[in-house]
Amino acid sequence: MSESRALVVVDVQPTFCEGGALPVAGGNAVAHAIAEYTASHRDRYALVVTTQDWHIEPGRHFATPPEEPDFVDTWPPHGVAGTAEAELHPALADLAPDASVRKGQYAAAYSGFEGTDDEGRTLAELLEGVDAVDVVGLAESHCVKETALDAVRAGMSVRVLSDLTAPVTPEQGETARAQLRSAGVEIATSR
Ligand SMILES: [Zn+2]
Fold first, then answer.
1. Where are the domains of the chain?
2. Catalytic residue at 11?
3. Which of 30, 34, 163, 176 is disulfide-compatible with 145, CB 3.0–4.6 A?
């Protein structure tokens, strides 16, 4: 039986790229690299799924002025539902994902497995029958990491394609990769 592999594209939204509310250095480049990769390797995947941070009223996830965000549990407002920067990155206009999951409407949600698509299907339901996933997107140290760890917990064989992701800081990236490796995630590249 051949392996069924999915690509999960995590939170590639302008809000997390240069020019957005909570930019990750290299975010726009990651968006373009993912677009190029999927255009030429779509046949590797049984399924392509995107996730988006889609905040309506996420409570303590957003710092309330005058409180300053601590960038651990509280953040500047970002990924606000209905705004242009919460949409998928324009570089992914031709991605044509099989499904799109949104998360974080009313609370913090780092893992794509906390989200659902327009028909209420969870990422776990969408990935039924898939035994392996490649996880890419933003940010490596946060939502990519949590999504990959949940995929391992769901029993899948998981790779993070490190050239198609970027961490919030280099140090947090190192910590995340160590945590991922010890959970059994393979850190690979798209090449
Ligand atoms: Zn968020």
1. 5-188
2. yes
3. 176
Instruction: Classify 5-188 by CATH class.
Output: alpha beta
Q: Annotated catalytic residue: which of 53, 117, 134, 143?
A: 143
Instruction: Give 40 Cα–ligand 1 centroid separation in angstroms.
Output: 30
Residue-wise pLDDT for 160-170, tens only, equals: 999 999 999 99
Whether the model pTM is above 0.90: yes
Residue 127: CB atoms within 10 Å: 24
Active-site residue, selected from the candidate residues 17, 103, 145, 150: 103
Question: How many angstroms separate the alpha carbon of residue 127 from the centre of ligand 1?
Answer: 23
Give residue 41's pLDDT band: very low, low, confident or very high (50, 70, 90). Answer: very high
Measured in Å, residue 98 CA sits from the centre of ligand 1 at 23
CA 107 to ligand 1 center in whole angstroms: 8
